[in-house]
């Protein structure tokens, strides 16, 4: 759900106990709030209601930073990872031969 919200440029309210910290920048694209603190969520939602222009600015910033990824992007990332792994294996083999 958080990834879908982020992909739609929606500010996220989350805790550190999920994927939220990997997706958002605290205070820029959402907020990471303390666990077991409903009052923190109530306070942040109140802030959002009282500061709608600032919230709209946040949505615009998230939207302009977001880049749609397609399968070509995924394939390029996979190729990069394969090349890195291949390089690491090559270095390990060289090291093993030098020390073996």
Descriptive report:
The protein is mostly helical and 100 residues long. It folds into two domains: 68 residues, no CATH class; 31 residues. It is elongated.
Overall tally of structural domains: 2
Largest sheet: 2 strands, parallel
Q: Name the helix and strand elements from N-terminus to C-terminus, one letter apiece.
A: HEHEHHH
Uncertain runs are none
Q: What's the total helix number?
A: 5
Strand order of the largest sheet: 1-2
Mean pLDDT: 89
How would the global form be characterised?
Answer: elongated
Topology of this protein?
Blueprint: H1 2-7, E1 12-14, H2 20-23, E2 30-32, H3 38-50, H4 52-65, H5 71-99
At a glance:
This protein is 66% helix and 6% strand. It has five helices and two strands; from the N terminus they run αβαβααα. The protein has helices spanning 2-7, 20-23, 38-50, 52-65, 71-99; strands spanning 12-14, 30-32.
What brief labels describe this structure?
100 residues, mainly alpha, 2 domains, two-stranded parallel sheet, 66% helix
